[in-house]
Design a protein that fits this description.
about 30% strand
Length: about 150
């Protein structure tokens, strides 16, 4: 497998990290200012708001991610638009797997775990059905894009 810095010849390139960060902050702020009534979609696709603990800072932070319902929880895809590296939040979930997910007022307390390579062939069609660009992102990178399976905490 090629190094993380080598992308495949897939079309397009992911946006710069600073653009994603600014967009994320604005999205969360607008969602909060509307009391959660607005900004629940990115285009026609549903988003959820995931509150997690920072791996380095230990602070609680909230980010919008594509909403992929799965069983009693959600799937979170660490695609970062097909960038050659995992998103920063990937490390947060590896170190602190307990997350709170809010989707249209439904709050879920979940624990994230990385999907195994055996699970991924079953999970990718579910992810693609909820957000079609994931297929393009997989073509854009040589990175094995992680999927977190988030299940209710017991």
């Amino acid at each position: 497998m090629a190094s993380d810095s080598t992308a495949s010849s897939g079309s397009g390139a992911p946006p710069p990290r600073w653009v994603l960060k600014a967009f994320t902050r604005g999205h969360v702020l607008l969602h909060r200012l509307t009391g959660g009534r607005l900004f629940n979609k990115l285009g026609k696709d549903e988003v959820c708001f995931v509150t997690m603990t920072g791996a380095k800072s230990g602070r609680r932070l909230t980010i919008p991610l594509m909403y992929v319902p799965y069983q009693e929880g959600v799937l979170l895809v660490a695609s970062q638009g097909g960038a050659p590296k995992n998103p920063i939040w990937y490390r947060n979930l590896v170190k602190h797997p307990d997350v709170d997910v809010n989707h249209r007022g439904r709050r879920m307390q979940l624990r994230a775990r990385l999907a195994t390579s055996d699970e991924k062939p079953e999970l990718w069609p579910i992810c693609d059905r909820h957000y079609a660009p994931y297929a393009e992102y997989r073509e854009r990178t040589t990175r094995d894009i992680p999927i977190f399976v988030c299940e209710p905490r017991s």
